[in-house]
Amino acid sequence: MMRKLPKITVWRVIFAVILLFGLYATYLRVFYGLGGSTNLSDKFPWGIWIAFDVMCGVGLAAGGFTLVATVHIFNIQKYKPVLRPAILTAFLGYTLVTVGLLYDLGRPDRLWHPLVMWNPHSVMFEVAWCVTLYSTVLFLEFIPVVCEKFGWQKPMEWVHRISVPLMILGVLLSTMHQSSLGTLFLIVPEKLYPLWYSPILPLLFFVSAIGVGLAMTIFESWHSSRAFGRALELPLLAGLARVLAVVMSVYLWIRFLDLAHRHAFGLLARNREETWLFLLEIALTAVPTVLLYQARIRMRPGALYACAVMVLFGFVANRLNVGITGLEAGSGTTYNPRWSEIAITLSIVATGFAIFRAIAHYFPVFEAPSHEIQAEESEEQEADPVSVG
Amino acid sequence: MPKAILYDSTLCIGCKACEGACAQRWGFPYDDKIAAEEKISAHKLTAVETHGDKFSRRLCMNCVEPACASVCPVGALEKTQLGPVVYDAAKCMGCRYCMQACPFQVPSYEWNQRLPKMRKCDMCYDRQSQGKMTACSEVCPMQATITGDRDALIAEARQRIAAKPDQYYQKIYGLKEVGGTSVLYLSAVPFEQIGLRTGVPQEPLPETTWRVLEMLPDIVSTGTVLLGGVWWITNRRAEVAKKEGRRK
Hints:
The complex is a heterodimer. Chain A is mainly alpha-helical. Chain A has helices at about 10-35, 50-60, 65-75, 85-105, 115, 125-150, 155-160, 165-185, 200-225, 235-260, 275-290, 295-300, 300-330, 340-360, 370-385. In chain A, helix 4 (about 85-105) packs across helix 6 (about 125-150), helix 4 runs antiparallel to helix 14 and helix 10 (about 235-260) crosses helix 11 (about 275-290). The longest helix of chain A has about 30 residues, at about 300-330. Mean pLDDT of chain A is about 90; it is low at about 370-389. By secondary structure, chain B is of the alpha+beta class. Helices cover about 35% and strands about 15% of the residues of chain B. Chain B is built from nine helices and nine strands. A three-stranded mixed sheet of chain B has the order 8-1-9. A two-stranded antiparallel ribbon of chain B has the order 2-3. A two-stranded antiparallel ribbon of chain B has the order 4-5. The chains are: A mainly alpha, B alpha+beta. Chains A and B meet through helix 1, helix 3, helix 6 and helix 8 of A and helix 3, helix 4, strand 6, helix 8 and helix 9 of B.
């Protein structure tokens, strides 16, 4: 890549344009404050930087803990090839969430305050701690990849020694803050539209995060197979897709029961923006769920990818509905993001893609592990001859 | 004894003296243009609203169990013994969760500042802790706003309603709303007609999130044992399989 000048491609031009707009928006944010860069108001204090950058960002990074639990705690070793990209996505995801927060916080210089000034009654306090700790866990989980690249043995052994408690901690922290992002909205019963406000928001957020973590793993495997010319691990991804279908079925079922118990279905008769966005969200979740139950769809790369993308969009729609749309009527105002909010969000996403690509290019994220690891690997393979096909 | 404010809309003549006194107390500019703004904002922490021939006042309700103080991740907001909900700008990191959580949409933000603060009425905490009444009560020519002990003000409000039942709507706003507020309203008409939110829950809002948060220790301890157990079993099974595989 560095040997010659980078070729000009459509994607690179788009990337550059997004970053230029993002830079100008950053200038506005820094010098003119939130008022000069966002459409936020006293009645609508949270916009897409929270609803998308933070709430979707954390959710889309859920593949990390889902696959760590699958491979290392439930010991289903066959999913190991997709574990590293999932951990990398998660680590990058959380880093970018923090970047998004730096834009959104009125006083980004005080990002560290919750670590020192405690309020255990605050959901946000809990999320802040979990996200900080979990980012550290993800960093440690990714260290072996870096060590492998440079052949460092010492830190690798060190991380290996604490790996089991580390992984358990990671899964617990994820469970806590993925659900807590839903708990955040329990405080606004009179503002959030009843199609979304539910006392079990934390459960719904947790289950959907597991699903979207799997969908994201399929999504990134598909993309990296194209970008790096690797063969797609189709049987593996099909296996994940089957789990995904089950998880999303459970999610939809809980959602159905919740709406039924709260007698909220009557709301669907109203011709309101909320109704249509709700139906869109459910359709984007239900359609791929049904499709993924069919083996012939799971085994076709294009269809599998399309289903994963639909799940991702359904997830994003849900988080935006909870974080933005569902709050508009109750707040007595409307909110549409300003161009600068969108520019920064797109820049963050684009940077995420670029960094992922660069790391996957330079570090052994996808490649078969090198010899030093192979020893460890074969040992582990021996350890479980049943599950390693 | 916690302090409170009683605002009697039937006595208010809409002179906006309270607005001026409030601006002065905070050191905010106040002129005709600002007086004409009928909403609270970062430079106007109380506002007199006109609803037909009725008036109403907006200010922080200083809830008995404030949502804002419960959600603040850094504890910048605090419900004092004295009654006011006070704000420590030095702690605030600007997450604006207090604004999202407030059922009355009271907290305002200095959107155009580079180093912004949240702004809201704190029921003149400094004055009240010296035994003085709030600036708005002191200046009110009609005594439409008065300061006192919350219980005494509730008794006073009940007395007013009982004495002139035909002039008052038969309820006190702030008695039960979100578990009680430190600003109480009397009105001649139902409260929604003078712009008050009547749809707010009757229970304290901090309960809604605490119900979930208080389960965390259980989730962590159960989760650790569960995940550790699963790991031990699957790992053990793999070890056994390995040994048996070798024996064969």
